[in-house]
Design a protein that fits this description.
174 residues, mainly beta, nine-stranded mixed beta sheet, 9 strands, 34% strand, globular
């Protein structure tokens, strides 16, 4: 089903989503709560999200790719860039460094200050240490808010297995 929210007129761009060709002009709308099961490991479930989507958002002017989705961001930790209640476009996390990227992260033991949920959108930063054999490992991961009224979330190495990077923030949909 394609969403036809009158308040979402900018997303609609006067087009309709063709069921046979998602990601050409539309992406799934995710509540994140219902989509959580789709992310059995990083990125692999994002394409499967399309199979579970009951609603789609029509977008105009954006280059879309499989795995992209729209979700509402609740909370003030990323203001002013991402206002509380904004609908945002996300994409699978590209290969390469995550350093400095705005990432949607799920953590088994994390509770977000604003929502009480296990998802958070923050700027990713990691500190790494080298081993004698030249490989490296995380010393800690820091998820930084943009709003100075909020504290960063610091994850220690023993928590790394409990963290799943779900997607990268692309933009706020206005």
């Amino acid at each position: 089903m394609v969403s036809t929210y009158s308040s979402w007129t900018p997303f609609q761009a006067g087009k309709s989503c063709s069921v046979g060709s998602p990601y050409q002009n539309c992406v799934p709308l995710s509540s994140l709560k219902t989509a959580a099961g789709a992310w059995s490991d990083e990125q692999s479930g994002l394409v499967g999200l399309a199979d579970q989507a009951e609603e789609w958002v029509v977008l105009g002017g954006d280059k879309l790719e499989p795995g992209m989705f729209v979700a509402q961001v609740v909370g003030k930790s990323m203001e002013p860039l991402i206002p509380d209640g904004s609908y945002c476009l996300f994409r699978p996390v590209p290969a390469g460094s995550r350093q400095g990227r705005r990432l949607l992260v799920w953590h088994a033991g994390l509770t977000d200050e604003d929502t009480g949920g296990q998802y958070t959108l923050k700027v990713y930063s990691s500190e790494k240490v080298s081993d004698e054999d030249g490989s490296w490992q995380h010393e800690r991961i820091i998820l930084k808010p943009l709003n100075p009224a909020y504290q960063p979330l610091v994850l220690e190495p023993d928590e790394e297995g409990l963290v799943r990077v779900v997607a990268e923030w692309v933009k706020v949909l206005r």
